From TrEMBL:
Name the record gives this protein: Sucrose-phosphate synthase
Annotated ranges, domain Sucrose synthase first GT-B: 153-433
Domain Glycosyl transferase family: 470-643
EC number: 2.4.1.14
NCBIfam families: sucrsPsyn_pln
Catalytic activity of the protein: beta-D-fructose 6-phosphate + UDP-alpha-D-glucose = sucrose 6(F)-phosphate + UDP + H(+)
Gene3D superfamilies attached to this UniProt entry: 3.90.1070.10, Glycogen Phosphorylase B, HAD superfamily/HAD-like
GO molecular function: sucrose-phosphate synthase activity
Alphabetized CDD domains for the sequence: GT4_sucrose_synthase, HAD_SPS
Pathway in which the depicted protein is active: Glycan biosynthesis; sucrose biosynthesis; sucrose from D-fructose 6-phosphate and UDP-alpha-D-glucose: step 1/2
Length: 1050
């Protein structure tokens, strides 16, 4: 920058003002030798990210010919750089403050949890909770433990022999198929796609596993291949030997594509969030039907439910949580990459504000989904220990110290006072080695021989070799999409700056596939253009290969070529969650150079086949590559170590550990199973009750059946019809349900076994079901909407073709009282979802005194991780801490309402809703203490309902589908303009939603003012299943809208 030394001095002065940059100041002397650029230093180090656009702008300004214009532009650039550095310092300060507040909250929550458990907490647990628990970490070999001995393998196989497990995997985004995967096509179709496909394939080949389904999105868009629209795709095993003996009619691994979201359109994962409920409903329907099919084949007529549902990434974690809750089966979660970690990185970069980050990446919605996955998961599978400590440690729902305490208490069989923590398990991804063939002579020529003529070389070799002037040189191989976080530009710079490395080796960059740079995303195109300019800058023509196309099947051949040339594989990413490509490279005999940030650290400790580098240190990267390329003995040692230890990462080893963890989970499934004979009169495809279910010890229903049997003995016309027996069993269950609940009001039916004869089959046989879920701060306001909806379909309601369900935050007692005062019959409704989904009742047509029957099957269905009394005490303590600071006596704002609380819903009255913190605050406080629950602000903020974590009004509807076979596509849900804080959960799905404009407006809307993300992030506003009425609509208007939705026919 000759003639503009004042700018250099200005920049150097700013650098000098930064703390801890002594080393950088010394490097300023390099400027005199033309090797240091203050601007580049600012871009890479002070600002914290590689802003190539900023540096390019500086170079253009520097090249301006008119001195006055050049000086002005350079001065403006200097101010821009200074401002970015200033923003970074401010962001760092805010980040420090935020982390400090978070640490204080966590320490407070941990102390409260310890205090609650202090009566029987051992001294060792107390010390470990408050101090350093690193001593309890497993060794690295322990973290990657595999079942390796022959005896252990035989024992494992014998344990699984005879089992026929059904496993469900979920991975929603990207383009997923079994063969010719288009990895690198876009940011959603990457390593996760390959991982889930290979996991499904490998699990299906294991003993004891009958079927594995990988659920994903069906994509029928014209811009993608037709294969992604196929509903089902079988994944044949790689090794057919020994597999055929295990096969059955529906056994094996399958990709199941569920249609949801916009039709005929492929959308990025950030746009999928509003459509998750639609996927959940479609997946639930599929799993129920498949469980019935498997039951007929291998279950003796009893449905075979999944032993686990495994969600991959946040969107699938959210879906798996809801599905596992609806089916009452165990859930497993793998994050792959985590939202909080990405948020922290983006904030440190300073490019975008928090709001801009959320708008672009829907990051808050993603974090909420990951927190829910922590709430619901039995097991969280990670690739590395670093992921547990540095990434999951950022979440409210996980604390390593508290986890250690809870594990210790479980082993000692001591109460955890309602606290639960998922088990974090390190299981590195596996790899399929069957296709890998190592050269017996690694010194063989690459251009063919008598035994291996050149024309048999894979086509991709010629595609790469054409770039090189000397193709015999060792190849440095990088395989990653052109994403800034993959740090490929630094790799090219390191290669270009190091002359000895350029003389000894070639560089190959496999950066996905492309037809035209202009068709690529702006981010990927920018990285690729930067690389091309660096190639030109350092004159690397003939030394760098960057082919435009490759197939997934070509990847092994690419690794093979690099190994044949005695090359090196490098992963220079800034942060690598795991590093599957490092394992693939090692399996092909390639030494590796990898980033020291993330999973490669653990991989390197196990394989010991390469070097770790600082991805920001260009010289370190060049030195590591040069050492491996130049020192033959080091290269051979790393190659041999990798090949010797690579078996620790095979798919069979991965699956053995995986299945052993599943086996340790407590089995759960719906409490009812279908009968062996459905009967011809049943119109439902849903699982139904059987005597085998009724005799379940956990429900202790024997006394009810004994009474029924005695009655049958006295009846000369005892029916042997299966449908008759099934209905009698239903009555036994429902009558017993009326007896068991200790908090049920006296108008709930208890003993009458004949009550409701034929009622529940009629619920199944309704042509349409209307769910009234309008939220109001008074029950009278709710029933205004009820009367209008009743009036709209009065004739059909009388005929019985339409059934009604009331879904509300009010208690059954409040509903019953109002029904009596308004002279409304309870039988006008088939079911009542009360307490925001904490309780479920049915109407009983034969009993006026006890017109309701409680479904305690539902309670057993939702009680997973319910904190009980430990949760209640913590909630009361929190409620007592909220006071009116402006009041004279500091009165309590929130008080426990014991009169309306039930076993599965703790209710609190709110005197001043405007003083109560947002619902996300109390959710965070409960999660910090490992208390899992669903907190709902309702009735215009005048009431707080706390129910089990996987319970809700929307989940109750899924339960009714599962229990009684209601067709969700023929269900209409009525909601208002706004509602309780669970309002949005009722809108999405395959059911139809009618939004009554003007209803609920202004009364409950303030509950959503402090929403973490906009409603459009969770509600599919453009869905054809959602329709809005006009304000002040009439019954005729509602009737017309229902017909338009397809849930009513005149």
């Amino acid at each position: 920058m000759a003639g503009n030394e004042w700018i250099n001095s200005y920049l150097e002065a700013i650098i000098d003002s930064e703390p801890g940059l002594e080393q950088a100041r010394e490097s300023l002397l390099l400027r005199e030798r033309g090797r240091f650029s203050p601007t580049r230093y600012f871009v890479n180090n002070v600002i914290g990210f590689d802003d190539t656009d900023l540096h390019r702008s500086w170079l253009r300004a520097q090249a301006t010919k008119i001195p006055q214009e050049r000086n002005t532009r350079l001065e403006n650039m200097s101010w821009r750089i200074w401002n970015l550095a200033r923003q970074k310092r401010m962001l760092d300060e805010k980040q420090t403050q935020r982390l400090s507040r978070r640490d204080m909250e966590r320490q407070k929550g941990l102390k409260e949890a310890i205090a609650d458990m202090s009566e029987d907490l051992s001294e060792g647990e107390k010390c470990d909770a408050l101090g350093d628990i690193s001593a309890h970490s497993e060794s690295i070999r322990g973290r990657f433990h595999r079942i390796s001995s022959v005896d252990t393998l035989e024992t494992f196989a014998n344990q699984l022999k005879g089992k026929q497990m059904y496993i469900v995997l979920i991975s929603l985004h990207g383009l997923i198929r079994g063969e010719n995967m288009e990895l690198g096509r876009d940011s959603d179709t990457g390593g996760q796609v390959k991982y889930v496909v290979e996991l499904a394939r490998a699990l299906s080949s294991m003993p004891g596993v009958y079927r594995v389904d990988l659920l994903t999105r069906q994509v029928s868009a014209p811009e993608v291949d037709w294969s992604y629209a196929e509903p089902t795709e079988m994944l044949p095993p790689r090794d057919l030997e020994g597999f055929l003996s295990e096969t059955g009619e529906s056994s094996g691994a399958y990709i199941i594509r569920i249609p949801f979201g916009p039709k005929d359109k492929y959308i990025p994962k950030e746009m999928l969030w509003p459509h998750v409920p639609e996927f959940v409903d479609g997946a639930l329907n599929y799993i129920v039907q498949m469980s019935k099919v498997l039951g007929d084949q291998i279950g003796g007529g009893i449905p075979v439910w999944p032993v686990a549902i495994h969600g991959h990434y946040a969107d699938a974690g959210d879906s798996a949580s809801l599905l596992a809750g609806a089916l009452n089966v165990p859930m497993i979660f793998t994050g792959h990459s985590l939202g909080r970690d990405k948020m922290e990185q983006l904030l440190r970069q300073g490019r975008l504000s928090r709001d801009e980050i959320n708008s672009t990446y829907k990051i808050i919605r993603r974090i909420d989904a990951e927190e829910l996955a922590l709430d619901a998961s039995e097991i969280v599978i990670t690739s590395t220990k670093q992921e547990i400590e540095d990434q999951w440690g950022l979440y409210d729902g996980f604390d390593r110290g508290l986890e250690h305490i809870l594990r210790a208490r479980i082993k000692r069989n001591v109460s955890s006072y309602g606290r639960f923590m998922p088990r974090m398990v390190v299981i590195p991804p596996g790899m399929d080695f069957h296709h890998i063939v190592h050269d017996g002579d690694i010194d063989g020529e690459t251009d063919g021989s008598e035994d291996h003529p050149a024309f048999l070389d894979p086509p991709i070799w010629a595609e790469i070799m054409r770039f090189f002037t000397n193709p015999r040189k060792p190849m440095i191989l990088a395989l990653a999409r052109p994403d800034p976080k993959k740090n490929l530009t630094t790799l090219v710079e390191a290669f270009g700056e190091c002359r000895p490395l350029r003389e000894l080796a070639n560089l190959t960059l496999i950066m996905g596939t492309r037809d035209d740079i202009d068709d690529m995303s702006s981010t990927n195109a920018s990285v690729l253009l930067s690389i091309l300019k660096l190639i030109d800058k350092y004159d690397l023509y003939g030394q760098v290969a960057f082919p435009k196309h490759h197939k997934q099947a070509d990847v092994p051949d690419i690794y093979h070529l690099a190994a044949k040339t005695k090359g090196v594989f490098i992963n220079p990413a800034f942060i690598e969650p795991f590093g599957l490509t490092l394992i693939e490279a090692a399996a092909h005999g390639l030494p590796t150079v990898a980033t020291k940030n993330g999973g490669p650290v653990d991989i390197q400790r196990v394989l010991d086949n390469g070097l770790l580098v600082d991805p920001h240190d260009q010289q370190s990267i060049a030195d590591a590559l040069l050492n491996l390329v130049a020192e033959k003995q080091l290269w051979v040692k790393c190659r041999q170590n990798g090949l010797k230890n690579i078996h620790l990462f095979s798919w069979p080893e991965h699956c053995k550990t995986y299945l052993s963890r599943i086996a340790a989970c407590k089995p759960r499934q719906p409490q009812w199973l279908k009968t062996e004979d459905d009967g011809e009169n049943s119109e439902s495809d849903s699982p139904r009750d059987s005597l085998r279910d009724i005799q379940d010890i956990s429900l202790n229903l024997k006394f009810s059946l004994d009474v029924e049997m005695k009655d049958d003995k006295n009846n000369d016309h005892c029916s042997l019809d299966p449908e008759d027996n099934m209905i009698k069993s239903e009555h036994a269950v429902l009558a017993w349900c009326g007896q068991k609940g200790t908090r049920e009001p006296n108008f709930v039916e208890k003993v009458d076994l004949n009550a409701g004869f034929g009622k529940f089959p009629s619920l199944r046989r309704r042509k349409y079901i209307y769910v009234i879920a309008v939220d109001s701060d008074s029950i009278s306001g709710l029933f205004e909407s009820v009367r209008m909806i009743f009036a709209a379909v009065e004739r059909e309601r009388t005929e019985g073709s339409i059934g009604f369900i009331l879904a509300t935050s009010f208690t059954m007692a409040e509903v019953h009282s109002f029904l009596i005062s308004e002279d409304v019959s309870p039988t006008d409704f088939d079911a009542f979802i009360c307490n925001s989904g904490g309780d479920l009742y049915y109407s009983s047509p034969q009993s006026e005194k006890n017109p309701f029957i409680a479904d305690l099957y539902y309670h057993s269905h939702i009680e997973y991780r319910w904190g009980g009394e430990g949760l209640r005490k913590t909630l009361v303590r929190w409620a007592n801490s909220i006071i009116d600071k402006n009041g004279e006596d500091g009165e309590h704002v929130i008080t426990e309402d014991k009169n309306i609380s039930t076993d599965y819903c703790y209710a609190f009255k709110v005197r001043m809703p405007e003083v109560v913190p947002p619902v996300r605050v109390i959710r965070r406080l409960m999660r910090i203490q490992a208390l899992r629950c669903h907190i709902i602000y309702c009735q215009n903020g005048k009431k707080i309902n706390v129910i089990p974590v996987l319970a809700s009004r929307a989940q109750a509807l899924r339960y009714l589908y599962l229990r009684w076979g209601m067709d969700l596509s023929k269900m209409a849900v009525f909601v208002g303009d706004s509602g309780d804080t669970d309002y949005e959960q009722l809108i999405g799905g395959i059911h139809k939603t009618l939004v009554l404009k003007g209803v609920g407006r202004g009364t409950t809307n303030h509950l959503h003012v402090n929403r973490s993300y906009p409603l459009t992030d969770v509600v599919p506003v453009d869905s054809p299943n959602i329709i809005e009425s006009n304000e002040s609509c009439s019954p005729i208007d509602i009737r017309n809208l229902l017909e338009k939705l397809g849930v009513f026919k005149c």
